Amino acid sequence: MTIPTDPDTGEFHRSANHFDARITADGRDGWPVEPGRYRLVVSRACPWASRGLIVRRLLGLEQALPVAVADPIQDEKSWRFTLDPGDRDPVLGIKYLAEAYFAAEPDYDGGISVPAVVDVPSGKLVTNDYPQITLDLSTEWTAHHREGAPELYPERLRDEIDEVNRGVHADVNAAVYEAGFAAKQAAYDDAYRRLFAKLDELSARLEKQRFLVGDTITEADIRLFTTLVRFDPVYHGHFKCNREKVAEMPVLWAYARDLYQTPGFGDTVDFDHIKRHYYQVHEQVNPTRIVPAGPDLSGWASPHGRESLGGRPFGDGTPPGPPPTAEEIDPR
Ligand SMILES: N[C@@H](CCC(=O)N[C@@H](CS)C(=O)NCC(=O)O)C(=O)O
């Protein structure tokens, strides 16, 4: 994979999501919510796709929106279904996610990214607009939520969630990539400074409250979690985000463990996919493609003590049950 950076500044800029149709209860974009009709294509390595995996589990949408898991290692044609028998997704019948992009737009020449939601009957990509995908699972798929599903994007907290998300996106979710992919020192320095300033701010916020917004788990926690869980295995070393590890920032470490140990979070995390993807795909950053053996991940299971802050993780709802057998992560 070639990492595109600005030749003048050395900055990495994330490309825009090209396919932004929405799957809605009223079907106004031509894509009505319909259980079993769509397939959520993810890589378990990818933080943007992992938001969808978590939200889907918390809301109990596993049957309504089945998932296809791509091989964590892309080849020159990008994401592929080499984990499946015959190297094909068993439902879509395709070998590469790119086939769904081209079915939707034959002369598309942009990136092939996950998460992607594909319409099974036509084989066409509907959306790769990751910030909207999870919000729509919360607000448009309500008819198919499980009993006891939490409210992850409650109306009364939306402004605050949106504001927290903007900061977390710019200075955490995207900043780790901007540090890791920077081609000039100043671009790296800027991303590193923004990242740790934001983590300090979030740590102060989370010292006295269990979750980022309100007293329950929301979309904001999911978006921060997907970066925190990748931090020590990948971003600290591979992306040079190394002022501290998350495990050395007591508040964030306890917060991350609290979420990790909550059903629907840790049971979607595949550290093997995460490590192999980053260290093997970004050859510009890691030319030997050697995947480090560490860090020791056993600490994720240790008690976090955050219950003493109060909070009601699922609000008036309940935690989800265990994941479907086919989606259990191999504990390597
Ligand atoms: N679609 C967004 C965000 C999703 C994203 O970056 N996904 C990564 C994996 S973590 C991906 O699929 N990259 C391949 C590509 O964009 O060509 C983007 O292109 O910036």
From TrEMBL:
<protein>
    <submittedName>
        <fullName>Glutathione S-transferase C-terminal domain-containing protein</fullName>
    </submittedName>
</protein>
<dbReference type="InterPro" id="IPR010987">
    <property type="entry name" value="Glutathione-S-Trfase_C-like"/>
</dbReference>
<feature type="domain" description="GST C-terminal">
    <location>
        <begin position="154"/>
        <end position="281"/>
    </location>
</feature>
<dbReference type="Pfam" id="PF13410">
    <property type="entry name" value="GST_C_2"/>
</dbReference>
<dbReference type="InterPro" id="IPR036282">
    <property type="entry name" value="Glutathione-S-Trfase_C_sf"/>
</dbReference>
<feature type="region of interest" description="Disordered">
    <location>
        <begin position="292"/>
        <end position="332"/>
    </location>
</feature>
<dbReference type="InterPro" id="IPR047047">
    <property type="entry name" value="GST_Omega-like_C"/>
</dbReference>
<dbReference type="InterPro" id="IPR040079">
    <property type="entry name" value="Glutathione_S-Trfase"/>
</dbReference>
<dbReference type="InterPro" id="IPR016639">
    <property type="entry name" value="GST_Omega/GSH"/>
</dbReference>
<dbReference type="InterPro" id="IPR036249">
    <property type="entry name" value="Thioredoxin-like_sf"/>
</dbReference>
